[in-house]
Amino acid sequence: MSGDDELDNLLKLVRLHNTWRGKECINLIASENVTSPLVDAVYFSDAMHRYAEGLPFKRFYQGTKYVDEIEDRVSRIFAELFKARYSDIRAVSGTIANATTFAALAKGGDEAAVIPLPGGAHVSHSKYGILGRLGLQPVEVPIIPEELGIDPEGAVKLIRERSPKIVVLGASVIIFHQPVKEISEAASEVGAKVIFDAAHILGLIAGQVYPNPLAEGADVITTSTHKTFPGPQGGAILTSSEEIYEKIAKIVFPVFVSNHHLHRLAALGVTALEMKKFGKSYAAQIVKNARKLAEELHSRGFKVLGEGRGFTETHQVLLDVKGDGGGARVAESLEEANIIVNKNILPWDKPSDIANPSGIRIGVQEVTRWGMSEGDMIEVAEFIYRVVKRRDDPNMVREDVIRFRKEFTRIHYTFDVDVKRAAEEIGSLLSR
Ligand SMILES: *Cc1c(COP(=O)(O)O)cnc(C)c1O
What we know:
This protein is α/β, with parallel strands linked by helices. It has helices spanning 3-24, 37-43, 65-81, 94-105, 130-133, 152-162, 180-189, 202-206, 242-256, 263-299, 327-336, 365-369, 374-388, 394-405, 419-426; strands spanning 26-27, 54-55, 58-59, 86-88, 111-114, 137-140, 143-144, 149-150, 166-169, 193-197, 220-224, 235-239, 303-304, 316-320, 339-340, 342-344, 359-363. It contains 15 helices and 17 strands.
């Protein structure tokens, strides 16, 4: 095959991906989002070609004077948004933010109280992920299976009994507010530091529909910057403790990051300003949409978790689809209809269920950003119902999904600016 054919093939794949995932799917993956065109213009900058190791104004080589100022300002804007005294925005992912924080606050052999994976924890909090690889010993807090949530009394009891070095809260599957206050009080009695991993719900915290964990007693927030918080992919760490901040800053570089992907920083700053201005309405609409979608699915015969408590307080809706063929089968047939979700283990699944677990996890943050509101959730529920319950031909449903999706072409909750002009003015690579 000639080089030109290779190029054509590659470009074709990029086009297919962009059209399909960007324009023709209803994307309900709970960990994803879309950046605004303004953020894109800022992101595609010369800074993506550059290097800077260390902290602003204390770099290891030349050429960083503007990047230093950007990083310094964005760290401040980001910290202010979350009412933290310090932020470190150099971690290039949520996992790196966790690695850094675990390494800063505990050492090999120390115990870490964690939520079990079937209770919704992220793999980086487990023996399979970085927590385990750093030699920390996970001890699992009890959960309330039906709510995919922590059992508050059980967790407090465990923390008092074991005196772990750290407690890791936050989760990848999270439908209700976690009992951060009670747990932080117990942790502080035994001298344990509380790390709240806000990867999924950072945008909901920014929009003040989810309680700020720092205000409830957590010592540190670790996070991704691209799930409900609709920024460029990356990670960040927030704390109001000077002592903890200093430990963390010494570990990000040189341990887990060398260069920290500099074009991210200003783009993260613009997203933080979007959230400062539009975050409240954005986050409120997300929770309204999630509730509405849950109710509509429930009324169409789906088993929706959290029924006794209004289904959800976040962007997520969790379904038990064991009776509909299982999570893997359901996710595959929805994909055929251009509805993208992920299969998920639920607390009552057995190890033998891993390949086809009972759960489906749905997140409405991205469709909310595309401007969908409660009325649109009725349509989305109906599409899901047609594929999963009525077993319509997914190819037929796909036609309707594409038609429906084409009504949503503009990203909401961003500044009303002429992005083409802005891109030219700032010398964005998008306008070269
Ligand atoms: C997604 C996620 C992470 C990992 O974030 P990456 O940016 O993908 O490394 C960490 N913690 C939780 C709770 C997550 O959901």
